[in-house]
Every structure is written in C-alpha cells, then in structure tokens.
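Sync notes, pocket subgroup
Present: LS, DG
LS reminded everyone that the earlier model was apo-only. Rerun requested with copper (II) ion included. Inputs:
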Amino acid sequence: MNNQRHSFSLVSTRTMPLNLLLLFVSISLGLMLGCTNKLDRPDSALAEQGRLTDSSMAKSEWNIAIEDAWARPTKAGMMSAAYFTMYNVGSVSDSLVQASSNASKDVQIHLSYMNDGIMVMEEQPFVAIQASEQIPFQPGGYHIMIIQPTMDMQEGDSISLSLYFKSGMIIEETIQVGNPAK
Ligand SMILES: [Cu+2]
C-alpha cells in the first residue's frame, strides 16, 4: 500500500514539472513569434507576403519541361502521335496526367511495348517523373496519341499540345508536324 502510493507520487512529481516546462516553452515560443510579426508589419501584409512566397516557391519546384517535340504527319480522321523528351530538373516528383491538342478532342497518354513479339499500346492513366529524371516519349515507347485529328497534319504544319500535371502545372506548346531529326 505504502509502496504504491510512494511510486505514484514519484511519477507525478517527475511528470508535472516536465509538462509545465513544455507548456512554458511553447507559450514563450508563441509570444516570441507573435512579437516578431507585430514588429515587422501588419498581419495583412504578412499574409500577403506569405502567399507570394508560397507561389514563387511552388513555381521553382515546377521544373518540368519538354524538348524536341514533334507530331507524326497524318490525314484527318487517321492517327497521329506526339513525341518529345520530358525533363524534371526540379527537386520534387510529379505526374503527367492528361494531354490535349487543337488537332483532336481525343488525346491520350499511351505506352507502346513488345508483347510476345507483337507491338501493342496501352492508354496510361499517368506517367510519373521523379526529380532529375528524363523520360523519352518516342516511337515504340511512351507517346501522346492524337486520335482521329480533325485536320490534315502535314509536314511543316504546327499544332498545339498541352500537358497537364498532378501538381497543377500545365505545359502549353506549339509543336511541329514532322520529325526534325529526319
Ligand atoms: Cu498510341
């Protein structure tokens, strides 16, 4: 009986000061932060600056770009595909989740691959890209499928290509019809 009481009081005397200390630290930390805010500028200006800082930070993380983009020439109502290299030079991963073009209302993200000696292609719900990664969209691999374009797409023409990312980033480019490497 005595022992139990004794140990109970030991626990409480040990924990109570620690709780008080933590409480004191958090209160003084809050007061310090509060003071700094008041000295610097009104709360509204601080909030405004916070928003600006946030958006510029977000932009610096949105470092995805495409290069060497082109689309395969085709006739209206047939099939075309857009190719490019997608770079992530930022420090955060992202995912390509959708694509669109003025050439067609039906634009899909596809992956071609060999299956039992036959080339097949499949629509992809997304293509993830890690920080510092580069992913080729090329014949025989990832590509943007432009299904039944509403216009002839001839060598030298150009079409719009928009790529939508999970982060909210959108890449909008005008790309050439015809492979520039040929
Ligand atoms: Cu395809």
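DG: The chain has two domains: 2-60, 63-177.
LS: The longest strand covers residues 79-88.
Action: DG to write up.
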